[in-house]
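User: I'll paste a sequence; please echo it back and then give the predicted structure.

Assistant: Echoing your sequence first, then the prediction.
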Amino acid sequence: MTEKHPHSLFGAVRMGYVLIESEKIDEWRRLLKQGLGMHLAHEDSATLAFRVDEHARRVIVARGPSEDFAAAGLQVDDGQALGVIMGRLRDRGIAVEAGTEEESTLRGVKSFYRFKGPKGMALELYTEPLLADEPLNMLTSAFVTGASGLGHLAITTRLPEKMLRFWQEIFDARLSDRISQPMGGAMLDISFLRLNERHHSIAIAATRGLRIDPIRTKAQHFNLLAATMDDLVNAYGRLRDLGCEMAHEIGQHPNDREVSFYVLTPSGFELELGWDALKVEEAGWKPTAHYNAISLWGHRPQRASLLRGIGTHLGNAVRGAKNALRPEYSPIR
C-alpha cells in the first residue's frame, strides 16, 4: 500500500494511561497505593484513579467483570500527528469512534478517539491530558514518564507478523532488538518496538513454530519505571509484606538493562516495576542485536505452593487450547 501521509510519527506518540476492568477494587487499591506507592487521585464505589506525575489520571480501575485491560491510551503530540494516524487507520478500513465526555473524564483527558487494536485491545488516541495541581502523595519518590510516556505493554500473540506491521505501519514504531527464550518446552521469540526514546513501548511475544497463546488477557503485563533503586527495592518489600505474589523476583534484562520485578495483579496479569532502563540513542543504534535469554540474572518465579503451581499450569493449558480454537483479531489484513 502506498503511504499517503509521509509525516513520521516516531517520537510523537507515547503510552499515556491504562484502563483496567475488575471487580477486585479493594485488592487493586492495596496493590497500587500501598504496594507500588502511587497517588490515589479519585475513589468511588465503581472507580479508582491513580497519578504518578502531573497527569490527572494514569492508571484507572473501573468496576466490571472482565479482569482485563479495557483500554490503553496513547498520547499524541498534536493535531497534525493525530490527523496522520486517523488517515492511516481510515486507509486501512479501521473504524474509529469518538469517546463521550463522561468517558473522557474517567480517563483524565479532554477528548479521545477509540479503535479496536490487535487482540481486540481498545486503543485510544488523545492529545490533551487533564493536569492536576495537587501535590503528589506517594510512597514512591517518583516515576519516570515525560517524553517517554507511562511505560510499556507486553503482548502475546499468534499473529506476530501482523502485530509488528500494525505498530510499524500506523505509528512508525522502530525495532530495538529481539530476545529468544526457551519456556515450557517451546521457544518464545520477543520483538521490542520503540515509539520514542524509551527502549520499548510495545513488546510482542510469540511461540516459534506452533503458535499458541496461553495468556487470557489482552496484554501479558504492563510496565512502570521508578526513579531510584531505593524506590524499586522498597516497593518490592511492601508488596511482599502485603502478601502479593511475585511472578518474577528482582532481576535484570539484557537488552534495555532494566532492573525490575513482576508482581501478579488481582486480575491475573502481571505488572512490572523497573528502574534505570536504557534510552536509545538513535544515531548509533542498530536493531540487529538478538539475545538468547530474557534475563541477565534473577527474575526467578516466586516459590509457590504445589496446589497453586498445578492450578496455574492447568489453567494455562486450558486457556491455550481455547485460544487455539478462537480466531485472534488483527486490524491489519
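DSSP finds six helices and 18 strands in the chain. Residues 135 and 274 are 23 Å apart (CA to CA).
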